[in-house]
Every structure is written in C-alpha cells, then in structure tokens.
Amino acid sequence: NAGVMQNPRHLVRRRGQEARLRCSPMKGHSHVYWYRQLPEEGLKFMVYLQKENIIDESGMPKERFSAEFPKEGPSILRIQQVVRGDSAAYFCASSPLTGTDTEAFFGQGTRLTVV
Amino acid sequence: DQQVKQNSPSLSVQEGRISILNCDYTNSMFDYFLWYKKYPAEGPTFLISISSIKDKNEDGRFTVFLNKSAKHLSLHIVPSQPGDSAVYFCAASEKYGGATNKLIFGTGTLLAVQP
Questions:
Q1: What residue in A sits closest to B43 (Cα-Cα)?
Q2: Which of A93, A101, B6, B112 is deepest in the core (most CB within 10 A)?
Q3: How many C-beta atoms surround the C-beta of residue A12 within 10 A?
Q4: CA separation for the pair A92, A89 (Å, rounded)
Q5: Which of A40, A43, A45 should we substitute to test contact with B (largest number of B Cβ atoms within 10 Å)?
Q6: In a structure prediction context, what are the per-residue pLDDT tens digits for chain A, which is 115 residues long?
Q7: How does strand B109-114 pair with strand B10-14?
C-alpha cells in the first residue's frame, strides 16, 4: 500500500510563473489536507478537501492560490504568478474519515523555490 | 495568533537519558493532540497521540502526558537514542467536536541525542 505521493519533490519557478503541486492520497483515503512550511517555521494549514469539494480553505491566501481534488486523479495545489515569498515546503496529508482514530499521513513534500 | 506553542527551539540529551519535549496550547476546543517527528527533506511521521479524555498515553519508549487545566502536553522519550534526533512537532485538532483532522502545529523542537 503506497503512502501519500507528492510530485514533484523539487520545483523551481521564476517569478510570475505558475506552480502546480500534485498529491495522490493513500489508497482508500478520500480526505486531503495541504500544509505549507516556511523556512524556520512550523507547518501551517492551508486547505482541506474531499473528493470534488473544498471543505475548509481558511488557511489559503486569498489571491493566486487554488486547490482541487477531482473525482479522478490527484489533488492539485496551484499557485499563479509565484513570488519569492511562496518559496517553501508544501506538504499534503490524507486520511480516510474524520472523527475516526486513524491519523492523517503525510507525503514527503514538494520544495518550491522561486527565483 | 499561535494556538500551539513549543517554546524550546532545541534540546540536547545524552543517549540513554530521558528527553522531555513540551507544548502549550490556547484553544480549549482542541480535543486531540499529536506528536510528529520530522527529518530534513522528509514529511512528518506520526509518533503518538492522545485524546482530551485521557491524561496519558504510552507506546514503547514514547509517552505523552496531557494536563488539560494547564493546557499543556509533553512527550517523554526514554531511553533516548541517537536515531531519535529530529525535529518534533506538537499538533492539535478538533477531531471529535469539529469532526476534522485539520492540524494546528507548533513551531517544532530540534532534539539532538548525543552518543
């Protein structure tokens, strides 16, 4: 049973370009969470999605950031017109159901560098 | 507004001794607490958790203590091993009351276990 898969592991973008980060949850998991870790900081919640639905996007910047989790395929975190401040590690986690005793499992992250 | 705080950025312990990592929180709605371990360039790995109805949970060398009145939890590792050297994150959620696995993380404590 493969774990949470994120790709790419490393992504370099020039200022103004778009960044697309992908997350395939563990098999059987229908809930996906995206977190961002800025240098020297903890992980900050960004968005929580279920299949085809955004449940909680309270941590997402209002502009340039969007997320989706389509019926088929991975969850995508999209950052338009990237700026240097977007450079960070972006982690995805997945879980089966809420309110259960099963924890969320994290992927290895995508390290975005904006040059 | 930092709802979960880890006030010690780093901790150094001798191999075989006890490591104690501390965490404080402010949100009384949190009902589930977790500790994650993280190596550089990897995603967080779940270690141990505790629900707010308990005050202690033990798993092998790892024990988590929860003091609800003080809004404080701690992770004890005994005996400490060099392989335990990593960054440890405390996290909290409204897992049962809020039916969410959305995690609020502390800023982490870097544990160094000296041989």
A1: A108
A2: A93
A3: 13
A4: 10
A5: A43
A6: 569 999 999 999 999 999 999 999 998 888 999 999 998 788 999 999 998 899 999 999 999 999 999 999 999 999 999 999 999 999 999 988 655 556 789 999 999 999 9
A7: parallel
